[in-house]
């Protein structure tokens, strides 16, 4: 290239970048009303609010009304006032690279672990994208060992499957997630901690994960005090990170805790822009966004050897497993695992209620010699559930019902197989061997 062209290119680079800006004409709660953008702004665009006193905040455009844009603040609005400048910012994108492995980041890709920012990849990836076309997606892969006997036996999973973990608060979701992080054979683990308690982040990373698991993981976290758009963005950012590694041909395990807090963040945003509440206070957009997020997990396009196996926790309010979010998520995913408080109170961990749990891929996963074992165990546990109150009261009499007698005799041995310590390794072969031994007792 000639010296004149090089000089011209350098001069062009020194020119100030063109900016599109408007102004704030209303502030209230999470909502920011903007004008001056005309048709140059769109839903999902971000704006930086810049006050003369140096205060600033980021907001995301969520609605348009009467020629004005309505945005939702992504941080505190303290120090801002009517009339401050609003500059249109780029749409959210993450330049993911292998340098992100072993890191704890916020939804914007900024470090939360006190280290330097991770190196950026060559191709930034938008966090809000569509799932691969349904007709062109690869099929699910082979069985994936989860390392948890209750799940490997009763809710087996294939590579690329999406499974929900349904439980009330304090029942043991975090412990089960830690067991899954250590037991699943995956190339990369992506954690999405949505609305997590701030004090629990280091405990989870240092006590539950440990340095070995963290080295092959990316943790995306938005704590409970983060603004609703950031909590929502944590789920989208984690999904974008998982898609990056999937498209490289790797097997990715995505653990999201929790989908319910993602839905609550969507509800805050919807209500802030005056969307009418519908089902139990949730605006209709919540039930539009849930499948858009969850459908992105799974196998990649045909020809891609990678897949995202997604495990999503759902916090059921008041142990009501039919509340709107739980009901919607259960219909989208490929199976569900129910954690029961009564089982946890009885001292059996993980407290998986195997009779209420289901994997839609189980018929294609279980071998012919495994299916009768699972069916027999379910029958015995179901029969025992019908008579266990009589057994506890001492009112049950042996000899009146041979099937009940068999269930009373064998159910404790099956429950012993399902009990497992957090640091106790397992695999499907060991699990089925233990179940066969329990049934033969």
TrEMBL record:
It is found in: Cytoplasm. The keyword Cytoplasm applies. Keywords: ATP-binding, Cytoplasm, Nucleotide-binding, Protein transport, Translocase, Transport. Residues 159-344 form the AAA+ ATPase domain. It comes from Neoroseomonas terrae. This is FliI/YscN family ATPase. Pfam families: ATP-synt_ab, T3SS_ATPase_C. The keyword Translocase applies. SUPFAM superfamilies: P-loop containing nucleoside triphosphate hydrolases. It catalyses: ATP + H2O + cellular proteinSide 1 = ADP + phosphate + cellular proteinSide 2. It comes from the Bacteria.
């Amino acid at each position: 290239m000639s010296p004149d062209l090089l000089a011209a290119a350098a001069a062009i680079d020194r020119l100030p970048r063109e900016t599109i800006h408007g102004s704030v004409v209303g502030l209230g709660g999470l909502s920011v009303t903007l004008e001056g953008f005309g048709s140059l702004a769109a839903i999902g665009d971000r704006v930086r609010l810049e006050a003369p006193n140096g205060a600033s905040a980021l907001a995301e455009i969520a609605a348009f009304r009467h020629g004005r844009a309505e945005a939702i603040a992504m941080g505190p609005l303290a120090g801002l006032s009517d009339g401050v400048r609003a500059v249109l910012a780029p749409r959210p994108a993450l330049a993911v690279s292998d340098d992100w492995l072993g890191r704890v980041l916020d939804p914007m890709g900024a470090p939360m672990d006190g280290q330097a920012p991770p190196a950026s990849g060559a191709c930034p990836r938008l966090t809000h994208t569509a799932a691969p076309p349904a007709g062109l997606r690869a099929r699910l892969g082979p069985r994936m060992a989860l390392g948890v006997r209750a799940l490997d036996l009763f809710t087996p999973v294939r590579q690329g499957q999406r499974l929900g973990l349904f439980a009330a608060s304090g029942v043991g979701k975090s412990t089960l997630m830690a067991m899954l992080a250590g037991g699943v054979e995956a190339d990369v683990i992506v954690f999405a901690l949505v609305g997590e308690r701030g004090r629990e982040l280091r405990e989870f990373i240092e006590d539950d994960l440990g340095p070995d698991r963290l080295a092959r993981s990316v943790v995306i976290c938005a704590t409970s005090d983060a603004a609703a758009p950031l909590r929502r963005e944590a789920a989208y950012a984690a999904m974008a990170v998982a898609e990056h590694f999937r498209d490289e041909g790797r097997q990715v395990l995505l653990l999201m805790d929790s989908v319910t807090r993602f839905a609550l963040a969507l509800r805050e945003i919807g209500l802030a822009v005056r969307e009418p509440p519908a089902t139990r206070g949730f605006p209709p957009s919540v039930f539009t966004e849930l499948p858009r997020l969850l459908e992105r997990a799974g196998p990649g396009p045909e020809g891609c050897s990678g897949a995202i196996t997604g495990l999503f926790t759902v916090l059921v309010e008041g142990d009501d497993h039919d509340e709107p979010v739980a009901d919607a998520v259960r219909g989208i995913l490929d199976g569900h695992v129910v954690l029961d408080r009564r089982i946890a109170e009885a001292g059996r961990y993980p407290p998986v209620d195997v009779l209420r749990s289901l994997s839609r891929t189980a018929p294609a996963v279980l071998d012919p010699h495994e299916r009768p074992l699972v069916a027999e165990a379910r029958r015995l546990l179901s029969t025992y559930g019908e008579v266990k109150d009589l057994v506890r009261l001492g009112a049950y009499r042996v000899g009146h019902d041979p099937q009940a007698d068999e269930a009373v005799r064998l159910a404790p041995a099956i429950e012993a197989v399902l009990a497992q310590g957090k640091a106790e390794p397992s695999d499907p072969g060991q699990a089925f061997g233990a179940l066969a031994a329990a049934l033969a007792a």
